[in-house]
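ok trying again, last paste got cut off:
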Amino acid sequence: QVPLVESGGGLVQSGGSLSLTCAGSGFLLSDAIMTWHRQAPGKAREWVATMAPGGATFYTDSVKGRFTISRDDAANTLYLQMNRLKPEDTAVYYCQNFDTATWGQGTQVTVSS
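nice, full thing came through this time. structure:
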């Protein structure tokens, strides 16, 4: 049983949208601090967004107003809705259970100019 599995990445034109999904198993996402990170080629992995168990959300400045982190407790799934995508958003996106430092395998997002 893989704790976190991401999906939803792909190729999109600049200005487009994608929705990433992170399916959890073996634990309740609603009980954990859940985060999205991304890693662009040749760069360090960077934090993108966080959702706390109570529902509070936090974003890095570069995605504020464009990305939305959300959670479906019934489906035990975390989402990252990404709008107005830019070429600099190109990266592998990972979800993480911050409390256990567990990572998913990542999903590639490529934004063409």
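cool. The longest strand covers residues 18-24. DSSP finds no helices and eleven strands in the chain.
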